[in-house]
Every structure is written in C-alpha cells, then in structure tokens.
C-alpha cells in the first residue's frame, strides 16, 4: 500500500512489484516450506485396515441410519401397500 501511494504521488507508472516486496514474499515462502517439511515431524501412516479386518463385504456397506420406510414409493405406485398398516394411511 505504501509503495502504491508513493507511485501515485510521484506520478510514476506502476509496472512491476517493488524489489523489497518480492524478496519478502520469496523469503517467507522458503521459510514456510522449510517449516512444513522439517520442523513438523515425521508423518505416520493411517491404517484403516485394522478397523476393516473383522468386517465382511455385507457389513461394510450396511448403513442402518439410512433405512427409510416412509418414502415416496407409495405415492408413485398405486399397488404399494407395505407401509399402509404401519402408518395408518
């Protein structure tokens, strides 16, 4: 911001980024990359197979929370009567 104001005041043409801003960005990028790679520590692998060892393919895809018995199927088919007794329709 300060550099742009200076350029406007002196009525110079804005063509490139000032050198000090470019150097600051480059140094901060290098420091950040070094910090992420070296200082954070060792990565550990995520072992999902431990949880899935005792499950069969039938239980892996089973989702009881998605069971829906009052759905729009009864409105789409005139012969659909599976839920009529349970819901009093």
Automatic annotation (TrEMBL):
Protein name: Uncharacterized protein
GO MF, one example: inorganic cation transmembrane transporter activity
Keywords, ordered alphabetically: Membrane, Transmembrane, Transmembrane helix
GO cellular component: early endosome; EMC complex; Golgi apparatus; plasma membrane
Localization in the cell: Membrane
Domain of life: Eukaryota
Segments passing through the bilayer: 21-41
Chief place where the protein resides: membrane
């Amino acid at each position: 911001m300060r550099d742009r104001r200076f350029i406007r005041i002196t009525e110079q043409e804005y063509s490139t980024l000032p050198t000090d801003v470019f150097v600051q960005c480059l140094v901060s990028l290098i420091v950040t990359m070094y910090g992420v790679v070296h200082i954070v520590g060792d990565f550990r692998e995520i072992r999902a197979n431990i949880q899935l060892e005792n499950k069969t393919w039938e239980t892996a895809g089973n989702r009881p929370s998605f069971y829906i018995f009052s759905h729009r199927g009864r409105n789409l088919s005139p012969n659909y009567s599976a839920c009529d007794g349970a819901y009093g329709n």
